[in-house]
Design a protein that fits this description.
This protein is of the alpha/beta class. It has 16 helices and 11 strands.
């Protein structure tokens, strides 16, 4: 999928000529060149300006979905599981983000010609409730043509005492192709991946990882900042200690060249946070200074067995995002939240619902597209192994 280099070099004559022709900064074109892809929102503009150079492009030139060997920078995507961001290299991430970007187009999402999972079975196995994640995977699988089964764990044999390994044996007998797992124990999806013969996707395990949320957050940022996230300054604020979203986002954003800050009270920060490769702040004023994006996290009261905060009211006063605290960030800063939100505890409604600054709705919309991209990539990797 590293088509950007050929378009920039062969059609426009290089980065600087392309920047002049497209009226973009050279750094923006450089970003496309290095990533190997061009953000979908710019395709129409590139197609139009290419005509002046006697080249007549179509959307297929930007994303050759018929190619069985998906890659970025000539690096083939061969991963069979999506368990943690640590499993991926930068080219893997670029391939996944490009696929997610491709499926942001609703006409592509709903086209029967794009049913890359036809004949395959996707099983959703959620030991923890999550309307957004479960339903987005269900919709993603169906839009790609898969047979989707969502197992009701609350009424399953698991509640009758069946072990996770017994569940794996049962699932194996059903011969699924893709298994999406959310579990309250860290490492459960990784354990299942060793016991089943299909691809396993971690939809959140304990306080460990949530890689698909990190990927959709990165795709949301790329859309909001014209495909260029390198050099952005992002503050992730709130309950870092209990957040698998924070852990996965820190790893992925660091990989993408983003400057990450963590902001929260000392009681809600992990003891090993000094080894995360980020700057840590305890107050919102200094932590948000100069930030392009503020990502708020839910206060996970269900994971707290002690008094981590004095009260919800005091927590919002010091660490909840309102207009006063948002003003500490860069002018025009965007706001994100992985959901579900505790309004009035970690974020005020007037910020969450302000379309000029809030990317929260876009995160939900991006979720289906990004998960379609992940399913697509894993399916192609499976087919490559079997061929």
């Amino acid at each position: 999928m590293a088509y950007a280099k050929s378009i920039i070099d062969d059609i426009f004559g290089g980065i600087r000529p392309a920047a002049r022709a497209l009226d973009k900064s050279a750094s923006t074109i450089q970003g496309w060149y290095e990533a190997g892809t061009i953000p979908q929102k710019h395709w129409e503009d590139v197609i139009e300006h290419a005509k002046a150079f006697d080249h007549y492009l179509t959307p297929d030139d930007f994303f050759p979905v018929s190619s069985p060997a998906m890659s970025s920078h000539g690096y083939p995507f061969e991963k069979l599981h999506c368990l943690t961001i640590d499993d991926f290299h930068r080219p893997d991430i670029e391939t996944l983000l490009s696929l997610g970007e491709h499926y942001l187009d609703l006409s592509v999402q709903k086209s029967p010609d794009r049913s890359v999972l036809r004949g395959k079975t996707l099983v959703n196995l959620f030991f923890e409730n999550s309307t957004r994640t479960e339903k987005s995977f269900e919709l993603a699988g169906k839009r790609l043509g898969a047979d989707v089964i969502s197992m009701q764990v609350a009424s399953s044999s698991v509640k009758k005492g069946e072990t996770l390994l017994d569940t794996a044996t049962t699932l194996n007998a059903m011969n699924p192709d893709l298994l999406v797992v959310r579990h309250g124990s860290s490492g459960a999806p990784a354990l299942l991946s060793q016991k089943v013969s299909c691809s396993v996707i971690n939809a959140g395990d304990g306080m460990h990882a949530h890689p698909t949320q990190a990927l959709l957050d990165a795709l949301t940022l790329r859309q909001a900042f014209d495909g260029d996230t390198d050099g952005l300054r992002i503050a992730i604020c709130g309950d870092i200690l209990h957040s698998r979203v924070a852990r996965s986002n820190v790893k992925l954003l660091n990989m993408l060249g983003v400057e990450v800050r963590l902001v929260g009270p000392p009681t809600l920060l992990p003891t090993d946070v000094d080894r995360w490769g980020v700057d840590v702040f305890h107050d919102m004023k200094t932590g948000l200074k100069g930030c392009d994006v503020v990502m708020m996290l839910r206060l996970q009261l269900e994971r707290m067995s002690g008094a981590f905060v004095p009260s919800k009211r005091e927590y919002f006063h010091f660490h909840g995002l309102d207009r006063t605290k948002l003003a500490y960030a860069k002018t025009g800063a965007k706001v994100m939240h992985p959901g579900p939100m505790n309004r009035g505890i970690e974020i005020s409604s007037d910020i969450a619902d302000d379309p000029d600054i809030s990317l929260i709705t876009q995160q939900v919309e991006t979720g289906v597209a990004m998960r379609m991209g992940i399913l697509h990539a894993l399916s192609n990797a499976q087919d490559g192994v079997r061929s």
